[in-house]
Amino acid sequence: MSIAPTDTLPERSMATQSNVRLNFTDGTKTVQVPADTTILEAATEAGVRLVSQCTVGTCGTCVGRVARGDVIMPEGRVYSLKKDEIDAGQRLLCQSHVRGDSEIDLDYPASMLDEYPVITATAKVGAIIWLGETAVELQLKLPKSVRFAFRAGQYVRMQVPGTDEWRSYSMASGERDRKKLTFTIRVLPTGVMSDYLRNNAVVGDRIEIEGPTGSFGLIDESGPVLMIAGGTGLAPMLSMLEKLQTARDEYPIRLVFGCSRETDLFHLDELEARQGFMSKLDVRVVVDEPTAVTGVLEGNPVSVLNAADVEHPLTSAYLCGPPAMLKAAEERLLELGMPAERIHAEQFLPS
Ligand code: FES
What we know:
Elements: E1 2-3, E2 17-24, E3 27-34, H1 39-45, E4 63-68, E5 71-72, E6 78-79, H2 83-87, E7 90-92, E8 97-98, E9 102-105, H3 110-115, E10 119-130, E11 135-141, E12 155-159, E13 166-170, E14 180-186, H4 192-200, E15 206-213, E16 225-230, H5 234-247, E17 253-259, H6 268-277, E18 281-287, E19 297-298, E20 316-321, H7 323-335, E21 343-347
The structure holds FE2/S2 (inorganic) cluster.
């Protein structure tokens, strides 16, 4: 989190509207943004859909990168972007105003939002499976009448039963499983979802969900794929691997998956099986202090990265895990020479 730089909001006396060109990965759209209106508000008004959720600057889903122009966020507020991310041109579009014509790069296709509309539904718990000491696989079944589709890498919000709290989780299941969704959830010592899963959850419980949302997912380009997952950050990678199983075969797919302890690891059998039928897949599993599990490396998902992982210029990196791991991984990839625009990250927060 960071406090925004000391910019001030545009004066109403400035030019009343500016043209903002939105560069999606599948094309561009231009919207006119009044000086006193955020880019997200103006885009919504113009019928151009952008990924967003909270609209108050805290969730980070509406992020875009300034390619040209002067795009500012009000001073003195707390945002989900860090100062170095803001310095690097990232902006939350639900909070951003423009001073003159501008251009914003977005890392998702405009078609995604039309293809995968947000729905709300009551799902039923189909299974609760403990995957290790600290992770649970939660299976949710959607009613037959609900039309739900998502892009691998996206997530849904779910209301924790018995509370007014909502939490967000990425689908670990593949895009083809539209009626049965699987989530891999870290169970912490405290936390509303953790408490529910540990103490109260039973098959048949009803859970309100809303989604899909988020822009994380495979960029539709050919080239090697490097996935870096910390803990339950493995979930969206599993969903993306299922897509890669049929979509892309000529380039290497590297997955680095790490947990603090061996007892926190999960889905090792599934990953091993995937390597059997995905000839280009290479999996590295890493923990702080390996002891018993064969083939597990010592270190963390960042320490085992090397130059060979990014040497192909078309390599795209996908990161999911706790904020500290994401920051370290991004820094390491940049240090290894990977262009910032090829690094795509999704962070998760306490459950
Ligand atoms: Fe949540 Fe903009 S929509 S930060």
